[in-house]
Amino acid sequence: MPDVDRARAWLLTVDGAPQSYVDLDAPTHLEFEYTRRLGHVLDTLADPGRALDVLHLGGGALTLPRYVAATRPGSHQDVVEADRGLLDLVAEHLPLPDGPDIALHTADARAWLETAPADSADVLIADVFGGSRIPAHLTTLAYARAAERVLRPDGVYLANLADAAPFAFLRSQLATFAEVFGELALIAEPGVLRGRRFGNAVLIAAHRPVDTAALARLTAADAFPARVEHGAALREFTGAAAPVRDADAVASPEPPGGAFGIG
Predict the structure, then answer these.
(1) Which of these, 82, 94, 124, 238, is most buried using a 10 Å CB contact count?
(2) Which residues have CB under 8 Å from 232's CB, separation 6+?
(3) Are 22 and 61 contacting, i.e. CB atoms less than 8 angstroms apart?
């Protein structure tokens, strides 16, 4: 069950695992490592302060919608979350400030994508976990094509993924999105990419290049430095992995105990 610590800075946990962190007095503070990396991408994909239309798949405590509202005023944001109880909990204890254009929707992420207007989002951020695993139906080629349809031609898809060596899941996701998007990049800690531990990896997919040089500088300066992989190195990492079809889809791997915490 979701739970929150009662303070101005809030940690939301789901089934005992840290899920979201929000500082009500500092919406630009991103505590978790992977959210900081997503924030870096959001900061570099358009001119500073430019309003964007953002679709969030997975709501959590609305950490990133709050961040976008603070850093890009005037943005329109849709948040799709399947867990109505979670949205109610957040609305009660962590209400959004007045002003930001953020619409909350209770729906399955893929079902929402398949009925959403085409070319309606500048950014799509996928951070959907059923417990501690990404649901199988959000890992497939059909899902990737649905995401691409909703994005504008210069739009950017971002996803929070998690895996460990030998990276069967992560490689399959890279192969899947490479079938749909012309440009891919991956942000993760070197120790994760070297197979030393289970961890998060942020996938970036688009039809245009992203500023990987700026991302590399920003992620390298974090308290837990990360590496940005793209181009030939990322294709080599992907190897012979095949795109995932609906009939073959499986959820992301179960993380080992204690794999996730606050970064």
Answers:
(1) 124
(2) none
(3) yes
